[in-house]
Amino acid sequence: MLWKLVLKEIKYQFKTITIYVFFGVIFLFYFSQFGIEAQEIYKPDPGSNDYGVVEITDEYEEMSGIYIQLKNDLLSGEVGKYTPLYKTVKLTEQEKSKLVNWLMEIAPTGEIKDAKTDIKVGYDRFIDIIHSYDDLMGGNTVYNDENRHSFRGKTYEEALQEYKDLKNKDKFTNGSARLFVDYLGITAGLFPIFIAAFVLLRDKKSRANELINSSKISSIKYVFSKYIAVCICVMLGYLVLATFTTIKYMIVANKLNLVIDNFAFLKYTITWITPTVLFTVAMGMLLSIIFNNAIIGIVVQAIICYKSLMPLEGDYSLTKNIIRFNSLGNHENYIYWRNTIITNRLFFTGISLVMVMATVYLWSIKRKDY
């Protein structure tokens, strides 16, 4: 009975325009954000002038780079903010005055030639100043802990080592697959809500509940059939893109005589994106039952999604339902965070099932009222 209901819901979803709009959105996002270019798996040229960038980890390099940014803010009279999209905000004269004082405290000479001698504050005090500046400008500036990143150009040696890791440790496609799910995970954290938030309210609106309530369909079968069906429909779009990308990489690898992991994109799609989809769909269904309104669920999920977008890498706490790993390869960093990512994915899978059971309970109470 359960799988007959699942199949029936899947057939219904593919008769609606909503699922095709969803596919269109994620396909557009894919082709605009994630490219598969052959040069991604070419060995770096020692004569190149650009090998990309790498995040700064040395404290003095970081302070020096941010100091230059602060001076540029003072000269331009504005600072960048995410609200939620990026924009610039002008500094008042009072804010400029405070920024001047902080700059003088950091480097009294007004410039940094040798960071270790010219910077007169410790790293902790420097971060305190950055926090004060962020607070002064209303928060969520580019200096916020989640938004603040300092980069420098990669050396040829670093680019070559990254290529070797991508080739030998990630077999090319594993590194690319993490970037693939980073981009598409953003869509999984938001857009499925537009299907899930209406799936239970739909029958009420069409008065189909009169038939459902008088039938022998249990609440658990009814709710789970819709939940499973929506998750299958949504995941189908991601699996199609994962398969499409795998085929493209196989063609490139065959041309360049490279060994790749043929299952990488499917593997990361299933393990990283599926828990996000499970959570988004479960949240949409639960909130629609609680508030008897789909819009509230959409708004709540949009907020949750936004809170999970930053930083681009390195925060996999249980408050982040989207896994961000916005770099190609970076194998050593992935290994460092792998267990934390696994814990995060298991948590969101578990909490999703809890929310579905809560939906079953609430729907069983409300179905009589319907």
UniProtKB/TrEMBL annotation:
GO MF terms held by the record: ABC-type transporter activity
Topology relative to the membrane: Multi-pass membrane protein
Subcellular location(s) per record: Membrane
Signal peptide: none
Alphabetically ordered keywords of this record: Membrane, Transmembrane, Transmembrane helix
Annotated InterPro entries: ABC2_TM
GO cellular component, one term: membrane
Domain of life: Bacteria
Keyword Metal-binding in annotation: no
Every ABC-2 type transporter transmembrane domain range: 21-305
Residue ranges of the TM segments: 12-31, 180-201, 222-241, 277-304, 346-365
Pfam families (UniProt xref): ABC2_membrane_3
Protein name: ABC-2 family transporter protein
Originating organism: Clostridium grantii DSM 8605
